[in-house]
Amino acid sequence: MFRLDELVERLGGELLGDPATAVRRVATLEQAGEGDLAFLANPKYQSRLAACGASAVILAPAARDLTVLPRIVTADPYIYFARVAQLFNPPEAFVPGVHPAASVASPIPASVTVAAGASIDVDVELGERVVIGPGCRIGRGARIGAGSRLNANVTIYHDCVVGRDCIVHAGAVIGADGFGFARERDGSWVKIPQVGRVVIGDDVEIGANTTIDRGALDDTVIGDGVKLDNQIQIGHNVKIGERTAIAGCVGIAGSTTIGARCMIGGQAGIIGHLEIVDDVVVSAGTLVTKSIRRRGVYTANLPVQGHAEWVKNFAHLRHLDALVDRIRALEERKERKAR
Amino acid sequence: MFRLDELVERLGGELLGDPATAVRRVATLEQAGEGDLAFLANPKYQSRLAACGASAVILAPAARDLTVLPRIVTADPYIYFARVAQLFNPPEAFVPGVHPAASVASPIPASVTVAAGASIDVDVELGERVVIGPGCRIGRGARIGAGSRLNANVTIYHDCVVGRDCIVHAGAVIGADGFGFARERDGSWVKIPQVGRVVIGDDVEIGANTTIDRGALDDTVIGDGVKLDNQIQIGHNVKIGERTAIAGCVGIAGSTTIGARCMIGGQAGIIGHLEIVDDVVVSAGTLVTKSIRRRGVYTANLPVQGHAEWVKNFAHLRHLDALVDRIRALEERKERKAR
Amino acid sequence: MFRLDELVERLGGELLGDPATAVRRVATLEQAGEGDLAFLANPKYQSRLAACGASAVILAPAARDLTVLPRIVTADPYIYFARVAQLFNPPEAFVPGVHPAASVASPIPASVTVAAGASIDVDVELGERVVIGPGCRIGRGARIGAGSRLNANVTIYHDCVVGRDCIVHAGAVIGADGFGFARERDGSWVKIPQVGRVVIGDDVEIGANTTIDRGALDDTVIGDGVKLDNQIQIGHNVKIGERTAIAGCVGIAGSTTIGARCMIGGQAGIIGHLEIVDDVVVSAGTLVTKSIRRRGVYTANLPVQGHAEWVKNFAHLRHLDALVDRIRALEERKERKAR
């Protein structure tokens, strides 16, 4: 429970209305009730302010007079909401110590928590206050920075590095072998040992069941502040720049480099050995098959249609080249006539 | 081993031929032999009846006279087959009790099975006959309804709810944080605490390595009778209506609502904040980028071509707008001439 | 550390330059330094030879005189590189034995390694030198051939078979139920028991978090020498021929058969009940919706564009059929005039 004046003291913003108004959680404009602090981040929802039952509201300067509720005015209400939500919902406090059903083969700081069923191999270095969830496996020689938290059943392969204050969700696999094989003439495959590591920066979040492969010769590198959603696959020797965010189910093939502050939409794919510069946005479902040299938004996906319409329209895609020939033929006749 | 008259007594249907015919498993028309009960569900396979070596056959009224084999006539042979297969293959019977290598921090019913390496946190409620597979992690305050079975290495995060008679396959992760961040001007991300839950109804099946994120403020909700295949990603605050079935590798982004009895094909994607009504079918590989307001089948995927043809045809997609301009120009000249 | 003459003695090839040259690891042309053995596999990189700091180089006969460095000349430098890399980086040597925090309910050979937190059910058969990583779950009646290695948190369901010398990466799930349900008139689903197995050949590699479902009635079969990357989903009753390689995030729906020596690009999808012959290459991101009867390369994906261009061009896809009608109308007028 915070009073509005306490919030403004900690997080800034201009306070209008009763400073003693108490709020105990954040909520959407629609669902907020007594004791809730709502927020208006997107002007298109401002009509919802009228009926809002919140005790107070966070809003932008342009919206300051749209309600008589106690309110906090701030340049970016969504960021403010995020910070208030963090105040109301601090990260879980873990009791330090090693669960008796964990297996730990390296010396670790007393501030570390290791849950039931976790196993930590030899030569592992864990920073202060690291949390290793139940069933996690930390391979030989791996390093995890202070304050990082691994949820359940996370696997960190040998020698991989995770920075400080990272969050890794359940089932993620960091450092499995990259998909590297040389092909014999008869089609059989000779495995290329994958001797690079995965090196992950600070303040990175990695979603559930996401996989990041170790490098073949050099390392796979994930920059500081990168946010990865669930079920992402990152191939060997990929490099991802700082603060890039990648939505669920994206696949990035080997040796591709992605710049800083990119945003990659869900189910997008990026083939191998490409370069994508900083500040690129790739739309959901888009397969990137060429390097992207200029910042901007890039898209390649199809409009959904009713199935019958789709059958009619898309049959022509097989014959687009012939269609263009027919147009050219029509144009040429015109040309001849014009002459 | 069942006699045909025993099957008909339990499951209904009309019996033709020797009621004492004994069958001990179900099989396809092609592979069935002595002691097998085959089924003809799809009329296009009826030519296979002639050579079928089964001891008996399940078929529809229209096909009743297509064989002289002992047979069960029923309106829906595929449903009948499913029910016979369930009789022949009852779910594994687990011995109740907690394995000595499990860690259980909540009181649980005596009828529950907890396998080796599983860990159950405090304040967890498990219904009667729940089975917790090896290596599963049940977070603080989670609830799992009677008769539900979790296979190996499943993670249920804190406070999530799984209904009765659910099946969750290995590696599934229920309740990891949704992908919610507010973006600062400098491109850095402020985490929005994900304080909602995942609430899963009764009779739901969840495939291997599927992930369902907890809600940001409200809950993510999966309705009764929903069937989810493997490697599906469901974002925060998604709602899925009763009996909807979703095939493998589908991604559904945050805050999207899907109606009841929908069928979503493999690798389809649905972007966030959409509404899809009841009884919608989405074809495999289709990315849905707009709400769907009417029941029906919706599709957006490409015809596969030999690579050389594809190169020829698809190059034109970049210039479709110019192509349309050329057609328009041709039409306008015609217009002018006609005048 | 190997001398070049030792390498040539073991692996063949023609040695030019000082046979006593010692190398201790492999590296790319760009990054190689003192003590490194670099390789030139792709002629387009041959300009990098000049500045290469390696102690020696592997190259093809055509490139034999492009450097004065000590070198090994061989028909396929990439295969040679792979084999040298294997010499320099032999697989980890595991100490045989069962970790005290593992649960083993079957008799196993003394040469087997079972790590912490692993659990092995009854009636399991493990070959010599099998390695079961931490947190793996081997179901009742499963069999794993000699020399196969499972990384952490792998789940093998009951009765499944893994061949010899396989590598299975963390989080893979072998043998979960296929997605098999019969649909009642009211839209509810009746589960069809999945009683087939997964049968995996020898020398197969399976990537992290990849899932392979057990067969419904018959088995799902993965041939010898198949290589599967991460996050692949393989449905029930799929058959994959020998030495086929499949990149990350591919989904293959039930009952599809894929030939030998195929290569399937990342994020490709193949719908169910298809047949794909030997030696087929499917490009990344391609959804295969028909059987492929002839070897060759097959593609269906879209060119990426800047978002504004894409909006302009792709709007027309909804109207392609009408566009073709307009072209036809133009052609018909021409025809009439010509007559």
Question: Can you walk me through this structure?
Answer:
- Three copies of one chain form a homotrimer.
- Chain A has 339 residues and is α/β, with parallel strands linked by helices.
- Chain A has three domains: 2-88, Udp-n-acetylmuramoylalanyl-d-glutamate--2,6- Diaminopimelate Ligase, Chain: A, domain 1 (3-Layer(aba) Sandwich); 97-298, Hexapeptide repeat proteins (UDP N-Acetylglucosamine Acyltransferase, domain 1, 3 Solenoid); 307-338.
- Chain A contains four helices and 39 strands.
- In chain A, the strands form six sheets. Chain A has an eleven-stranded parallel β-sheet, with no helix packed on it. In chain A, strands 9-11-14-17-20-25-28-31-34-37 form a ten-stranded parallel β-sheet, with no helix packed on it.
- The longest helix of chain A is centred in the C-terminal third of the chain and has 19 residues, at 320-338.
- The mean pLDDT of chain A is 95.
- Chains in contact: A-B, A-C, B-C.
- Chains B and C meet through strand 4, helix 2, strand 39, helix 3 and helix 4 of B and strand 21, strand 22, strand 37, strand 38 and helix 3 of C.
